[in-house]
Amino acid sequence: MINILGKNNSLLSQYLSEIRDKDIQKDRLRFRKNLERIGEIFAYEISKSLNFETKDIQTPLGTANQAVLSDKIVLGTILRAGLPMHTGMLNFFDKADNAFISAYRKYNPGGGFEIKIEYMSSPSLEDSTLIISDPMLASGLSMILAYKELIKRGKPKHTHIVALIASQEGIKQVQKQLPKDDISIWLGAVDDELTVKSYIVPGLGDAGDLAFGNKE
């Protein structure tokens, strides 16, 4: 299942327009805050698909019959670019456990690159609902490798993959290489072009650098 939130006009559209704007991008604090806000929007939308149970809640004046979240949530993200969106989702799923994966591009002398997983920290994922976020789903390889690394810690009952901007190619690769029945994909927007260096066009640039500064 693919959910593209940017198809309908909402505040996400406003934040996405600011995140793409090369002049507004110069304000790193605003860039990070917009990613955080978008993470909150994704969390709210995903929550509508989760499982709830009814409980009696004692108020100062009586008892209220109230639905509360019953799923065990694990929020995962790919360092470092995914941290602001992850923070936004953690603001809403405030009782969630957390998983972190360090992935980077290793460029080959003859051209091209491969994705390397350097570090992973995760609780058990058995019978949990896993939500993995990364601002950009370009070639899809980072997300695919991150998922395969995470499920070594147990099989989630369902996984939600979240990206602000995706390429058509990245979506195809995720659908091809990951189990369709157990995964939902949540996107802000889909861009058509992917360069030979796997950058999305028009995209927004390097989300990690824009949020936290250039790396060597």
What's the CATH C level?
Alpha Beta
CATH architecture: 3-Layer(aba) Sandwich
The CATH topology turns out to be: Rossmann fold
Q: Count every helix, treating DSSP H or I runs of 4 or more residues as helices.
A: 6
The number of distinct structural domains comes to: 1
What is the percentage of strand-forming residues?
35-45%
State Rg: 18 Å
Overall shape: globular
Mean pLDDT comes to: 93
Kindly name the structural category.
alpha/beta
Helix content: 25-40%
What is the β-strand count?
Answer: 12
Major β-sheet, in short? 8 strands, mixed
How far the N terminus sits from the C terminus, by CA atoms, comes to 38 Å
Question: Can you describe what's shown?
Answer:
There is one protein chain. The protein is an alpha/beta fold and about 220 residues long. The chain has one domain: Rossmann fold (3-Layer(aba) Sandwich). Helix content is about 30%, strand content about 35%. The chain has six helices and twelve strands. The protein has helices spanning about 10-20, 30-45, 85-90, 140-150, 170-175, 205-210, and strands at about 1-5, 50-60, 60-70, 75-80, 95-105, 115-120, 130-135, 135, 160-165, 185-190, 195, 200. The strands form three sheets. Strands 1, 4, 5, 6, 7, 8, 9 and 10 form an eight-stranded mixed sheet that branches. A hairpin with a 5-residue loop joins strand 5 (about 95-105) and strand 6. The longest helix has 20 residues, at about 30-45. The radius of gyration is 18 Å and the shape is globular. The N and C termini lie far apart (about 40 Å).
